[in-house]
Amino acid sequence: MTDIFDLFKKISSSSSSTQGAPEFLVAGLGNPGKEYAFTRHNAGFLAMDYLTEKRNLGDLRTSRFKSLVLQTEIGGHKVLLMKPQTYMNASGEAVREAADFYKIPPEKILVISDDVAQEPGRMRIRRSGSDGGQKGLRSIIEHLGTDAFPRIRIGVGAKPRPDYPMADWVLGRIPEEHQKPIFSILGCVSDAVPMILDGRFDDAMSKFNGVQF
């Protein structure tokens, strides 16, 4: 008969292996609060929700690192999923705090955000680069001290005219005519994440950067 203490050790060992320190951090950017739930700026939050639902990972409910987080596995990789609750412009505070705690280097931090430079229904994967005017990315670059981290940017469309306030545009709700293409591209974002975690950047970029819904 198996000793109860041996059984406990096996269970503890199995649990410890599953819940070991994450090697990757995936952050979907947005603003907390129901009033921002379906705004253009919350495309990163929407992508994170789609990813967890599609892969049956559970919800991001734990409050830690100024974020809602979920520690899980994707494609055999231990990952910390996070939705910073700092508001967009201070996203870097949350990402840096989690990265420092788990000693995750920038090249293993994947950030998902909105992109006004792309049409709704498009996405772009990049290994690194400037913030492109996206203030959440800007904050992360400032707090990490580098722009050498991968990102997926989700097209939400450009503002209708030059004098239209950018804040009003990105904080505006996704209009009905843009909902289908934006929500369709979220499926591609979800499929791209495990490829990026595997280091298959070229394959992911080739497959998804040209997609248009």
Low-confidence segments: 7-18
The CATH superfamily turns out to be: Peptidyl-tRNA hydrolase
Total strands: the figure is: 7
Here the CATH topology equals: Rossmann fold
Assign the CATH architecture: 3-Layer(aba) Sandwich
Total of domains: 1
Query: Approximately how much beta-strand content do the residues carry?
Result: 15-25%
Helical/strand content category: alpha/beta
- Helix and strand sequence: HEHEEEHEEHEHHH
Distance between the termini: 60 Å
Which CATH class applies here? Alpha Beta
Radius of gyration: 18 Å
What fraction, in percent, of the residue positions are helical? 25-40%
- Give the strand line-up of the largest sheet: 2-3-4-1-5-7-6
Treating each run of at least 4 consecutive H or I residues as one helix, how many helices?
Answer: 7
Characterization of the model:
39% of the residues lie in helices and 19% in strands. By secondary structure, it is an alpha/beta fold. The chain has a single domain (22-208), classed as Rossmann fold, CATH 3.40.50. Strand 3 and strand 4 form a beta hairpin. The chain is globular, with a radius of gyration of 18 Å. The model is unreliable at 7-18 (pLDDT under 50).
